[in-house]
Amino acid sequence: MKRMRLGVVLTAFLLSATTLSAAPAATPKAPSNDDCLGCHEDPSAKRADGSSLFVDKKVFAESVHGAAGASCVDCHTDLAKTADFPHPEKLAKPDCSGCHAQQVEDYGKSWHAAARAKSPTSKAAWCSDCHGSHDIKPSKDPASRTNHFNLPATCMRCHGDPKVFPRAGGADGSEPMSFHDSIHGKALEKSGLKVAPNCATCHGYHEIRSPKRDPKSTVARIHVPSTCGSCHSKILDEYATSIHGEQLAKGNESVPVCSDCHSAHAISGTPEVRRLAILKQCGSCHDSSLKSYRDTYHGQVSELGFAAVATCADCHTAHEIHPAGDVRSSVGPAKRLATCQRCHPGAGPKFAKYDPHANPHDKGRSGILWFTALFMKYLLIGVFAFFGVHTALWFPRSVKARREANRRGGNGDAR
Amino acid sequence: MKDHGTAAPAGGAYVRRFDDLDRRLHIVLMTSFLGLAFTGLPLLFSERKWAKALSNLVGGFRAAGGLHRVFAIVMVIVFLVHLSRMMKRLFLDKDTTILWGPGSMVPQPRDLSEMLGHIRWFVGLGERPRFDRFTYWEKFDYWAVFWGMGIIGGSGFVLWFPKFWSRFLPGDWFNVALLVHGEEALLATVFIFTIHFFNGHLRPEKFPMDTVIFTGVLPLDEVKHERPAEYERLIAEGRVAEIAAPAPTPAEFRRGRIIGTIAVCVGLLLASLTIYALLS
Questions:
Q1: pLDDT score for A12
Q2: Cα–Cα distance between A283 and A295 in angstroms, integer?
């Protein structure tokens, strides 16, 4: 029944189009919203491919555009000059720039826009993918897709799906879904803190650039500290004056930035895990320091999986890392004792002369340790070499002795 | 088949080698040694899965550290009891035989010649030396404990109270203490779990167990064959009757074998884990 009606409408359209093409073009009056809704209000109305063309009058009326009295042709501009209805199925994509010029310009610089420009089949987000279409609500509306608290769920529709966004399948803390369990995600979604960041706080709103491919991205390696520092400003001050921060400012991107230790999305508030994980992080560059640390009690206990002993940042601090010769260094002569005393209250100045990265093979670092290590090495080799040979020679002779004793039925060792 | 030195007690005369206190000291020493190894080795091989498992088995590194210190105190007590007995014999009983001669643990020229003779016997170049009461390898084991007590015990107490000791010692002595504590522990455990076990228990003539340290007595016949010099001395001095002892009951004998076997098995397990970790 419905289908028949649609068929009639389409036939009428084709006929009128043929007739009109011959007639001179007049300037028709733009259709009113009610004109449009005459067809689109019908929930059962469908396009040729069976998809619905229904527009809910009430939903549109409650949307930001509906409430502002916008008409359909404000967005669907190609219908403003059309008098012939029904109109062709394929319309131009609404161009939001007519009203939202700045936002569309910003979007044009984004990786989303670049990906769409590159491939027509790209699934990269377009205005309506994030904002919706006839139901767009202002961001301050709690029901809006782009409301501060709802934005992660909106982004995750694509970025939580490995089929759309391959990195979503990772498990190294860079996968976007881990945001939900992060300290940021919990503050936003569980505690409802408006100061908690959502995706856009770090990545931007419309001008979302690729951190890997675009050095202008707010989360490109070189910009990560300043982005995080927009909230964590005191930490940024500390980091910026540290050896790592100074090197980054010089363009050395091999130094650690925030996300190397804290991860990009899984940013955790549990220090136990982070304090053990940091060993691997720091050790990925400072491998000889990690090795010498492993020879100490601190290093052995942490290797067993217990975080109750000092790991890197406990002595070197997390953000204010300076070379040991620098007066600001937590392990330099000026602050070293105070650093030890944080865990060893009452420790004296000689206590702080203990070398937590001792190297027994480095004669210059500690002569007595070098000598002791050498002595122990030869003591062990000497003892085991002598008794190894002793035992190896004794064993066959002992077998023989036992056989002889057994054969004799005697009760003593063979002579 | 005669299972020399290992089967149920044979008939015939028995003599006492170790008194009751010595036997008990050995059991406590052995237990505390195994305890120290169990709670200490995981730190030395912390990168190994078995070390993490062992560490969790004893209740984490804090519990392991606590037990390690308890075992250390027990071992020090054993050591001090033994020392005080020696002091008493020397100064109160005026027994100078512990300083020199066949009844002494002090290394003497004959130990060197017996060692060389023993090695010649291994390769078929001579007779077995006519050992007396204490052989050179027994003396080595004995003094190794003294050396170990000094080195491991001393460094252990430095590491136990670093704040106190750092008032007197320079900082890098703690690095030295940590190094020697670990290296010497490695030497002591691997030595005891391989060489001492072989000499005392696992060599074919003794296998699977020499129970003399657990029962305190051994057949006079065994003295005659293994330690002929001591046997002849006992006969010449007419002291056999003086040290004669009743044969161990089957229950005593069994108990010795069970305790010894458990200790040997635990030790061999730790030694295999250690050696595997060192070689791989």
A1: 45
A2: 14
Whether A303 sits inside 8 A of B55 (CB atoms) is no
Question: Among residues of chain A, what percentage have pLDDT more than 90?
Answer: 65
DSSP per-residue string spanning A112-159? HHHHHHH-TT-----HHHHH-STT---TTSTT-TTSTTTHHHHHHHHH
Q: Does domain B14-279 have CATH number 1.20.950.20?
A: yes
CA distance A294 to chain B (A): 9
B55-103 confidence digits (pLDDT tens): 999 889 999 999 999 999 999 999 999 999 999 999 999 999 999 999 9
Q: Is A337 on the interface with B (CB under 8 A)?
A: no
Q: Which residues of B fall within a CB distance of 8 Å from A350?
A: 166-167, 169-171
Q: Name the residue ranges covered by the structural domains of chain A.
A: 2-95, 285-358, 368-415
- Using alpha carbons, select from A53, A55, A51 the residue that is nearest to residue A72: A55
Q: Which ipTM value was assigned to this complex?
A: 0.91
Q: Describe the crossing of helices B172-190 and A367-408 by its angle, rounded to 10 degrees.
A: 10
Task: Report how far residue A263's alpha carbon sits from residue A196's, in angstroms, rounded to the nearest whole number.
Answer: 17
H runs (alpha helix) in chain B: 20-44, 49-57, 60-87, 109-122, 136-148, 154-160, 162-165, 172-190, 197, 212-215, 220-226, 228-237, 240-243, 250-279
| Of the partner residues A346, A369, A377, the one whose CB lies closest to the CB of residue B172 | A369
Q: Cβ contact (<8 Å) for B187 and A383? A: yes
AA identity, residue A373: A
Q: Do B175 and A346 touch (CB under 8 A)?
A: no
Could you tell me if A201 and A182 are in contact, meaning their C-beta atoms sit under 8 angstroms apart? no
Cβ of B172 and A373 within 8 Å? no
Q: What does pTM read for this prediction?
A: 0.79
CA distance B201 to chain A (A): 12
Separation CA A256–CA A42 (nearest Å): 59
Q: Which of A304, A370, A395 to mutate to test the interface with B (most CBs of B within 10 A)?
A: A304
Q: Parse chain B into domains and list their residue ranges.
A: 14-279
